[in-house]
Structure formats: C-alpha cells, structure tokens
Amino acid sequence: MPQMPDFCLTDFLPYLLNRAAEESGAEFARIYKDQYGLLRTEWRVLFHLGEFGTMTATEIGQRARIHKTKISRAVASLQKRRLLMRTRMERDRRQECLTLTRTGTKMFEELAQAAQHYNTALLADIPANERAVLTGCLHRLQTARLAPK
Amino acid sequence: MPQMPDFCLTDFLPYLLNRAAEESGAEFARIYKDQYGLLRTEWRVLFHLGEFGTMTATEIGQRARIHKTKISRAVASLQKRRLLMRTRMERDRRQECLTLTRTGTKMFEELAQAAQHYNTALLADIPANERAVLTGCLHRLQTARLAPK
DNA sequence: CCTTGTTAGTTACAAAAACAACTATTAGCA
DNA sequence: TGCTAATAGTTGTTTTTGTAACTAACAAGG
Predict the structure, then answer these.
(1) Pick the CATH number of A9-142 from 3.40.50.1820, 2.70.50.60, 1.10.10.10, 3.90.1150.10
(2) Rg of chain A's alpha carbons, rounded to an integer?
(3) Rg of chain B (C-alpha set)
(4) Is the pLDDT score of A149 beyond 50?
(5) Any idea where the domains of chain B sit in the sequence?
(6) Which of A5, A86, B89, B133 gives A96 a disulfide partner, CB atoms 3.0 to 4.6 angstroms apart?
(7) Residue B145: pLDDT above 80?
C-alpha cells in the first residue's frame, strides 16, 4: 500500500493553524472584549483604519478578508460609539469613507501598543531565526490557493 | 518616544495565524462540508475518534480543546447519522464511550486520506527545512499561555 | 444513610455568524 | 434616453456558537 507512513491529523496544517490561532489569541481577545467592549470584527476594522488610514468598507473587507455584512454591522456599531465617522463619497455616492475619530484613534493606539507587547511576549521563546521563517510561511499560507476547482 | 519602530498589525501573530488558518483550510472545509455533510466540529470529533480510537466526550474535548456543548451536539449528530456508537461505561455511568461505526471509520479513512494529500499540497512550496520550523512553532504556540492572570 | 461538592453530559436561551434578498447608485451601451 | 448589468452597502432570516443553568451519577465525610 503506497501510503505515506504515520501522517497524524494533529499535524494537519489547517488544524494546527487553527489551534495555534485560538490559543495564542485568547488572552488578547479578552483585552479588546472585556476592557474595550469590542467584538472581534470591530477590533479588526478599527485596526485596519488605524493602521492604513481612511478607506471604504469594501476596501477593509478585501484587505482583511471579512464579509461585507460583518463589516457593515461592525462599522455601524463603531459609529454609534463615536469611534469612527462615515462620509459619503461625492464621485460615487454609493460608497463612503470611514475615518477614525479622535477617540477611535486613541483606542486604536492603545490596542496597537498592547498588541505589540503581546506579540513580543508570544515570540519570546522562539529563536529569532525561526521567527522570520514562521511569519514568512504564514504569509504564504495566507494566500494559499490550491485546486481552483 | 521609546516605541519599537514599524510594528505592523498585519504581522500580529494571532491575526496572521487566523488568516493563514482560514485561507489554507477553506478549500478542505468544502470537502467535509459539501461532500460529506459534516460541520467543522463534527469533522474534528470524527478525526479524533478515528485517529486515537474509542474515547469519551470529555476526553475529545480536552485533546481538541472544544467546549463540551459543541462536542455534545456533534456527537448527537454523528450518532443520528450512524457514524458512531455510544455505550455507557459501567464503572461510571455518567460517561459513555464513543466509537466509530464501520461507516464512520470508512468516512474517517477517506477524509484522512484527503487531508493528507491536501496537507502535502499546502506544504509543497515550502522548503523542507522550513516545514519543521513551522510545525514546531505552531505546536509551541498551541500551548502558549501568557499572563495567567 | 445523608449532606455537600464534583463531574459527565444535555438543554435552553442569548449572541454572533452565514446566507440570501434587498435598496440605491453607477456604468455600459444600444 | 432607457435598458440591463454591476457594485456599495444594508437588512432580514436561518444556522451555529457561547453562556449558563440543568439532570444524573458519583465521591467523601459526618
């Protein structure tokens, strides 16, 4: 039987990645949830606007690979809390620019700082040379497209 | 300002891991969902039973880090489809052993095979020496516990 | 025994996600 | 212009998840 020997499903990459993602992120999730009252999608929208500046909802969706309905609700919630402003574009009145308010920017900066520290702690016991390999691989896996059906 | 320069949130490890997990696993998810009609938790329960043999619900939960309510529902669904059998333990009649039926085992084997091929394809364009580093890091991140509050 | 506490698993209800259908606006083109 | 198609974003409905409360079984000490 020409089967590769002892492939263990606990080493199945998508599973391994999921586990690593959940476990490594759980502690940080409590920060933006409990301390800042943000949902995960809201935190992601916030950090994309904070990191890359004003942009449209669709653009966030493309960058972060989030479905537009999730974005829509996250944006609505962030706006209600006065963390961002929306302004209709003139050249195309379907779309609107999203910009963080001063409060939103402040929250972003605090969370970004926390994220950075958290990240450092996560990487603490991984040798420097392995870190580059890790993030490199992850970036490649992020765009992995296999059999395009 | 003593801030570490240019930390980009798109390199924030939990985010990166999540993205990589979702993107790299999406194609495989369609297999167990569309072709086998399984939910993600169901697939995980199936593969733990297939990989490690008969065990109790709690044990699956501990190994796979899945909450017991999710396990409970997945098990109920798998049983209804005759993919597993449950038998009460005699020495402790609260718990029950879960065992794959013949059909369940067959499905597991097919999916395990598919997973293995999928995994190989995913790793195809990652140099062999980097693969070891990647999986090693992921295993460590899986058990990452920071500030134990 | 009988109380108290713990554990295995289920169920009920609330929160969040997935999916589909919708409005409003623009673009292409006959 | 006026028709069709496409796009930005929203809303409504159904699944799935998360949280908490629950039942049943055990365990340990009085």
Answers:
(1) 1.10.10.10
(2) 19
(3) 19
(4) no
(5) 13-142
(6) A86
(7) no
Angle ∠(A135,A138,A143) on CA atoms, nearest 5? 135
Instruction: Record the tokens describing residue B149, joined without a space.
Output: 């509050």
pTM listed for this prediction: 0.90
As assigned by CATH, the class of the B13-142 domain is mainly alpha
3 state SS of B85: strand
Q: Which residue is listed with tokens 């963390």?
A: A83
Residue A46: name the closest of A72, A74, A22 by CA. A74
Nucleotide closest in space to B93 (CA vs C1') = D25
Q: Which two tokens stand for residue A144?
A: 């992995």
Residue with structure tokens 């084997």? B109
Subunit contact A24:B11, Cβ cutoff 8 A: no
pLDDT in tens, B102-132: 999 999 999 999 999 999 999 998 999 999 9
Task: Return d(Cα B3, Cα A73) in angstroms, integer.
Answer: 33
∠ CA B41-B44-B50, rounded to 5°: 145
Number of residues in chain B: 149
* Tokens encoding B44: 């995980």
